[in-house]
Amino acid sequence: MRRFNYRAKDSKTGKSVKGVIQAENERSAGKLLLDQGYIPDTIEEEDTSSIFAKLSSKVSGKDKIIFTRQFATLVGAGLPLSNALRTLVEQTESKPMRRVIEDILSQVEAGKTLMEACSKHPDVFDQVYLSLIQAGEASGTLDLALKRLADQKEKDENMISKIRGAMTYPAIVLFVIVAVVVFMMVMVVPQVENLYADLGQELPVATQILVAISNFVVNQWYVVLIALALMIWLFIQFRKTDTGRRWLDLFKLNVPIFKNLFLRLYNARFARTMQMLLSTGVALLDSMRMSGDATNNVVYEEQITMAQEKVQAGKPLSDALKDKKYMMPLVPQMSSIGEESGKIDEMLGKAAQVYEDELDEQIAAISTMIEPILMVIMALLIGGIVLAVLFPIYSLVNSVG
């Protein structure tokens, strides 16, 4: 499907409108506009080949939450799907999101279901999103499914935002440490070397090492930049491989200080997604598969896959989730209570809420812990450089005296 920018007039009101429509060709685009009650003035194919167009086509999590919540409100108010989508096209400020909605609208008007239309955009709508829409359409509770999706995405975005916020201050401090070290290596250390060279004195060993590093950074700075760029590129390529992703996900679950934070994040995300899927009527095995995928950690997902096989073999969910290394105890415990009461979705929701609350506390604790650790690192690095600079000067003064 190609995209066409158009200008047209509403055949009923005579009002001029403009927008984007997707069609096989220009003629099909004109026919679609006529079917919608518009008289085309101009139809031009949109240029999507530029790098800028590709970079600006990404839909943010916030845009998706706003779309989902507004869509739920409009559908809940009784608007037909096409009318609700058309209203969202007019209201949406984000251009990437508007393009997606326009495509969904054209697909729905062509006779596709909402789930089929949304599935054309896998980078925007994941499998959980599509399954909930499908379940909502089948049961006639699409507005409730959309509201649950908006709530879930909002909670997930809030958790990620809190984690990023907690890392902002340490990142700033780390940047300051690097900047100060580079400044001293480039500006201060060479002055000490020149001073000793003028007096014909030999530098202490520690200062000689520091001077050698300083000279390399100053004279071979392009080599340093190329090496850093190469390391970053290699890391990005490694992360894209299955081995690299698994290694990094395993690292997150075992890294000191942060492992408890990630454990709570993944357990909360799994339990919350399970609650949402089960409450909408998605089958247990499908819910487990999609919830494991929604954690966005392949190591944790492998555990859910093993538990899924046990459930398929006839074991209860609570037994299948027990004794998994990265599965925190409250999830199988609440699953067991849910199995007895017939309310697994509610119990998993409560487990998710507990871990979400603990996650907030964990983030605050880590923020408090990291600050003094970084200060100690800064003191050791800068202090070591200062000593390496001041010691030869002190020795020189003593020798002259």
Describe the structure.
It is built from 17 helices and 3 strands. The chain is mainly α. It folds into 3 domains: 2-55, Ubiquitin-like (UB roll); 61-152, Receptor-associated Protein; 169-401, Type II secretion system (T2SS), domain F (Receptor-associated Protein, Up-down Bundle). A 3-stranded antiparallel sheet has the order 2-1-3. Helix 16 (330-341) runs antiparallel to helix 17. Mean pLDDT is 83; it is low at 49-55.
CATH homology superfamily name of the largest domain: Type II secretion system (T2SS), domain F
Residues in helix, %: over 70%
How many β-strand runs?
3
CATH class of the largest domain: Mainly Alpha
Q: Radius of gyration over alpha carbons?
A: 29 Å
Strand content: 5-15%
Helix and strand element order: EEHEHHHHHHHHHHHHHHHH
Q: Count up the helices.
A: 17
What CATH architecture of the largest domain do you see?
A: Up-down Bundle
Main β-sheet, spatial strand arrangement: 2-1-3
Overall form = flat
Low-confidence stretches: 49-55
- Rounded mean pLDDT score: 83
**Structural class determined from secondary elements:** mainly alpha
